[in-house]
């Protein structure tokens, strides 16, 4: 298959894919991969296969094609191709919740001396790295990466990237419980879709609606949460987007749990868990098990709650997800207090505070915990964040956290 024929077949596959004929598109692209002698064409078709498998939630296949693409990029001896292939390798590992590997491949991308094309990819690299740091609950570094990605998006007038970063920032602020910002950023993403997204994939609309649903639920606006989640789920079902279906089912379950409708919540948690297991989203599984634990606690089935916690803890430890562990210790604390088991209670109180210290989840001004309840937060240029009211009351001539870190042990 020559260069022109390769190009025609790739375009044919794209047309089929955009018409929701995914399996036909995959067959066309696989034929190109088998028969084309054009390395640049093979590189491009591998990119199409990587994107398609990512959207279907076939993350192991995505990783397999990303590895092949790296070999093709080396054959082409072009730093731009190599940067793009390492980015796809980073994204594949991000989807499989291999966060340390993601960070390592992102750093490889940023260290490559490519041309303008590579520089334009730096925003996407920063976004992927931010998502990985967030998966590890390293909040300061996650925020630094998201803000860097946002700067790249603005400098390159890349509205799609800006939309994706806004969704990740929504997730970031949901996790540290500034629900006003958790809603603001996905609303901003939805605005970008409305203003610029006429030719975009519907996944951008679905993504922004899902993150809005999560924030609305946290704010107790359950009707708004249900409306947004239904719209996101509708698009996910139309496009066979399994990863989005999984998180929407989780959100539906959480909404029903918020209404104390445990009987409706459980089947949705089960369906979400089934898809999360199928696609390999271990971080999603931790969130499902947390929701199920809270349902068992509502029903006062404390032993079943502890069984869910045990499964979630094993997953969270394997991932290095410190926030998940903190939440699990918090739930254990409540369960053992109810059971009157003082020794176990004390163990989990100690572990909870160790997690808070490790993640720096406290305000450097008032010393109170961050992420315990809904609070307006403000980040300084160094990406350390504080209660907004503390900054407004005390002002700052610099970051108290940075000052503390710069003092050598034994100096004071």
From TrEMBL:
SUPFAM superfamilies found in the cross-reference section: RING/U-box, TPR-like
Entry keyword set: Cell membrane, Cytoplasm, Cytoskeleton, Lipoprotein, Membrane, Metal-binding, Myristate, Phosphoprotein, Postsynaptic cell membrane, Repeat, Synapse, TPR repeat, Zinc, Zinc-finger
Entry's family note: Belongs to the RAPsyn family.
Lineage of origin: Eukaryota, Metazoa, Chordata, Craniata, Vertebrata
Record GO terms (molecular function): acetylcholine receptor binding; protein-membrane adaptor activity; zinc ion binding
Encoding gene per record: Rapsn
Role played: Postsynaptic protein required for clustering of nicotinic acetylcholine receptors (nAChRs) at the neuromuscular junction. It may link the receptor to the underlying postsynaptic cytoskeleton, possibly by direct association with actin or spectrin.
GO cellular component, one term: neuromuscular junction
Superkingdom classification of source: Eukaryota
SMART domains reported for this sequence: RING, TPR
TPR repeat segments: 123-156
Record-linked CDD domains: RING-H2_Rapsyn (cd16478)
Localisation: Cytoplasm, Cytoskeleton; Postsynaptic cell membrane
Domain RING-type: 363-403
PANTHER family from the UniProt entry: 43 KDA RECEPTOR-ASSOCIATED PROTEIN OF THE SYNAPSE
Membrane topology summary: Peripheral membrane protein
A Pfam family matched in the record: zf-RING_2
Predominant localisation class: cytoplasm
GO biological process, one term: positive regulation of neuromuscular synaptic transmission
Protein name: 43 kDa receptor-associated protein of the synapse
């Amino acid at each position: 298959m020559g260069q022109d024929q390769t190009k025609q077949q790739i375009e044919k596959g794209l047309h089929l894919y955009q018409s929701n004929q995914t399996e036909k598109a995959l067959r066309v692209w696989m034929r190109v991969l088998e028969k084309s002698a054009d390395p640049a064409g093979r590189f491009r078709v591998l990119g199409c296969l990587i994107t398609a498998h990512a959207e279907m939630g076939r993350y192991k296949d995505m990783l397999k094609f990303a590895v092949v693409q790296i070999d093709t990029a080396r054959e082409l001896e072009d730093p731009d191709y190599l940067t793009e292939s390492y980015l796809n390798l980073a994204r594949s590992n991000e989807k499989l919740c291999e966060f340390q590997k993601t960070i390592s491949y992102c750093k490889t991308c940023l260290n490559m001396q490519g041309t303008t094309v590579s520089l334009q990819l730096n925003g996407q690299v920063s976004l992927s790295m931010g998502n990985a740091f967030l998966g590890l609950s390293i909040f300061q570094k996650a925020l630094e990466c998201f803000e860097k990605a946002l700067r790249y998006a603005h400098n390159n007038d890349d509205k799609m990237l800006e939309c994706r970063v806004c969704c990740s920032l929504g997730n970031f602020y949901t996790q540290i419980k500034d629900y006003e910002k958790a809603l603001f950023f996905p609303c901003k993403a939805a605005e970008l879709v409305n203003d610029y997204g006429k030719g975009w994939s519907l996944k951008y609309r679905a993504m922004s609606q899902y993150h809005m649903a999560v924030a609305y639920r946290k704010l107790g606006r359950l009707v708004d949460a249900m409306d947004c989640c239904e719209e996101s789920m509708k698009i996910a079902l139309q496009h066979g987007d399994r990863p989005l279906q999984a998180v929407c089912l989780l959100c539906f379950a959480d909404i029903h749990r918020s209404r104390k409708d445990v009987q409706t919540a459980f089947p949705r948690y089960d369906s979400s868990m089934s898809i999360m297991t199928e696609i390999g989203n271990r971080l999603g599984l931790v969130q499902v098990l947390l929701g199920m634990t809270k349902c068992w606690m509502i029903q006062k089935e404390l032993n079943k709650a502890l069984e869910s916690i045990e499964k979630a803890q094993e997953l969270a430890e394997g991932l290095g997800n410190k926030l998940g562990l903190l939440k699990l210790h918090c739930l254990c604390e409540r369960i053992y207090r109810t059971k009157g088991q003082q020794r176990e209670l004390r163990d989990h109180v100690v572990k909870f505070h160790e997690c808070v210290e490790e993640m720096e989840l406290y305000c450097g001004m008032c010393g109170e915990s961050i992420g315990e309840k809904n609070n307006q937060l403000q980040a300084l240029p160094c990406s350390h964040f504080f209660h907004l009211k503390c900054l407004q009351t005390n002002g700052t001539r610099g970051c108290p956290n940075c000052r503390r870190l710069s003092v050598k042990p034994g100096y004071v």
